[in-house]
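RECORD TYPE: protein structure
NAME: Rod shape-determining protein MreD
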Amino acid sequence: MSKAIGKYVIMWVVLVLLQVLLLNHIQISGYINPYLYILFILLLPFDTPKYLLLILGFLLGLNVDIFSNTPGIHASATTFLAFIRPAVIRLISSRDVLELNTPPRLGSLGFHWFFKYSLILVLAHHFFLFYVEVFTLKGFIFTFFRSVLSSAFTLVLIIISQYLIYKE
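PREDICTED:
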């Protein structure tokens, strides 16, 4: 158990540092901003209690907010992500998948399932994040395209990370 917790602590630190030191400085044409740190919430085990998901989502987003000087935007978006994650898992998964004692990984659940799971959650996170950031419907189309393109780039990074790190 402590080995698993240690693995998640290391993943938390690496993803937050990667986000604030490297990925926050990538901005392609004003449209693409990758947010790989949400991978932490996506890779938590299926049986993670809902209250713990919400707490971890808030604290993860708060870490990114502190280093990025964004007052609560990431904390609210990752809390939203953690909130909808159980419903998305129930929506796209069969009972057999939910009874597995494995965390949601590309290697263990297959590309199709993991892609669908990641796509829904990344899109939800990015739409929430970007619309809360602008907090107006002015520039709706710009924010929409920014959300979609950033989601696509983040999803590519998530899939690549799965192939590089989890060779199951």
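COMMENT: The chain has one domain: 2-165.
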